[in-house]
Design brief:
alpha/beta; Rossmann fold; four-stranded mixed β-sheet; 8 helices
C-alpha cells in the first residue's frame, strides 16, 4: 500500500471489478513513465514481511522513494490513519472513482475493495521520487496487460516455505480461521504465478536483515544479479 506514505497492506488476489480504463488513464500513466523514474512493483503473499522490509527502505532512503497510498473500503485497523496507511473510503466513493477511470489497478478481496489511483502515482512523481507500488498479483497482471509502458521493475517477496508463512500469519493474532484459510489459498496462487517468471526479481525473506540487504542491492544499487531464486514449494502442496 514508511516515507510518510504507505499502503503496506496484506492485500491478496482479487477480481477485476470493471472493464479496462479508457485512454484518459493511459495518458496520465504515460506521463509517469515519461519522468524516466522507473516504478517499483512489490508483490508477495500476506505475511512475507513486505511491510517491514519497505519500512526499513523508507527510513534509510527517505528522499529516494515515495509510496503510492492505496484506496480501500475496509475499516482502519488499530494504528492506521487516513491518508497515511490508506485512503479509507466508502464503497460508493470507490466505485465512483473506478467509473471515472481513477485507478491504475483495483481488485476485491474478502469483501473489501483496494486500488492504486492515478493521483497517488502522480503525487510521488511530482515529488521527484521513485514510486513503489505494493500490489497483489491481480494488479501485476493488469499493469502487464494494460500499462506495460510504465516499465516497472517487478519484485516478488517470497516466504522460505508455506509452513513459515502460516506461522507468521498465526503470530499476528488478527486472522480468523476463515481469513487464514483464504490468505493461505491466495498465497499458493501467488506463488504459482511467481513460478511463471512474471517477476524480474525474487527476494526470499528467510532472515530479515539478509532479505533487506538483497532488496536494497536490487532497488538502490541495481544489482539484480544479487536476487534470490524462488524456493521449491512442491513438497508442501
Amino acid at each position: 500500500m514508511p516515507s510518510t506514505c504507505s499502503s503496506l497492506r496484506p492485500r491478496q488476489e482479487g477480481s477485476r471489478l470493471f472493464p479496462r480504463p479508457n485512454s484518459s488513464i493511459l495518458h496520465v500513466g504515460m506521463s509517469v513513465a515519461a519522468g524516466l523514474i522507473r516504478p517499483i512493483v512489490i508483490c508477495g503473499p500476506s505475511g512475507t514481511g513486505k511491510s517491514t522490509l519497505l519500512k526499513k527502505l523508507f527510513i534509510d532512503y527517505p528522499d529516494k522513494f515515495g509510496f503510492s497510498i492505496s484506496h480501500t473500503t475496509r475499516a482502519p485497523r488499530p494504528g492506521e490513519s487516513h491518508g497515511v496507511s490508506y485512503h479509507f473510503v466508502t464503497r460508493d466513493d470507490f466505485v465512483d472513482l473506478v467509473k471515472r477511470d481513477g485507478f491504475i489497478e483495483h481488485a476485491e478481496f474478502s469483501g473489501n475493495m483496494y486500488g492504486t489511483s492515478v493521483q497517488a502515482v502522480e503525487d510521488v512523481k511530482k515529488g521527484g521520487k521513485m514510486c513503489i507500488l505494493d500490489i497483489d498479483t491481480q494488479g501485476v497482471k493488469l499493469i502487464k496487460a494494460n500499462h506495460a509502458y510504465l516499465n516497472p521493475l517487478y519484485v516478488f517477496i517470497s516466504p522460505p516455505s508455506i509452513a513459515s508463512l502460516k506461522t507468521r500469519l498465526t503470530g499476528r493474532g488478527t486472522e480468523s480461521a476463515e481469513s487464514m484459510s483464504a490468505r493461505l489459498a491466495a498465497a499458493v496462487g501467488e506463488l504459482e504465478y511467481a513460478k511463471s517468471g512474471a517477476f524480474d526479481v525474487v527476494v526470499v525473506n528467510d532472515d530479515l536483515e539478509r532479505a533487506y540487504n538483497v532488496l536494497r542491492q536490487v532497488i538502490v544499487e541495481g544489482k539484480t544479479d544479487e536476487a534470490d531464486k524462488l524456493p521449491d514449494f512442491s513438497s508442501e502442496a
